[in-house]
């Protein structure tokens, strides 16, 4: 039923959708009531604070909660004329979106934990300096130096990983170490 197009009445000068008169123009928008507000505006003003409050209680983060509440209100607004209990539908929508956010957030936390597993949470200043110096090297030199001195790989293993000859690995190591030595000397001179 959600995929069915809304009932539209076009016989008059201004069409209606779900009984709401649309004003022609660049953007078809609901005609406002006598008080200057549409039915959705009234619903929004009445239920926004509650939706945010429920979402905060469910997710614990105000910024996320406001976004979830806004999305929920927009979802209810799209179906406002067709649902029997809009307030109940809003409550259920907030709960469903908060549940979905928790699942997504948990997946992201697990992904991050897997990505950082085994990595130290902080480095010594010397290690930080070395990582900075390594990051300045071209990729193949950085890979050769890192795999040799931090992972204890042989020339043949590095050559296989970099898809090059073992003699090329020795050249990469020589140039990489020379560049690191020069970088560290310049750092000490500062």
Radius of gyration (CA) equals: 31 Å
CATH topology of the largest domain: Rna Polymerase Sigma Factor, Chain: A
CATH C-level name of the largest domain: Mainly Alpha
How are the strands of the biggest sheet laid out side by side?
1-2-3-4
Mean pLDDT: 80
List the secondary-structure elements in sequence, H or E. EEEEHHHHHHH
Q: Structural class of the helices, strands and pairings?
A: mainly alpha
Describe the protein:
The protein is mainly alpha-helical and 190 residues long. The chain folds into two domains: 85 residues, Orthogonal Bundle (Rna Polymerase Sigma Factor, Chain: A), CATH 1.10.1740; 56 residues, Orthogonal Bundle (Arc Repressor Mutant, subunit A), CATH 1.10.10.10. 65% of the residues lie in helices and 5% in strands. The protein has seven helices and four strands, in the order E-E-E-E-H-H-H-H-H-H-H. A four-stranded antiparallel beta sheet has the order 1-2-3-4, with no helix packed on it. Helix 2 packs across helix 3. The longest helix is centred in the middle third of the chain and has 31 residues. The chain is elongated and about 75 Å long. 15% of the residues are buried. About 11% of the residues have low confidence.
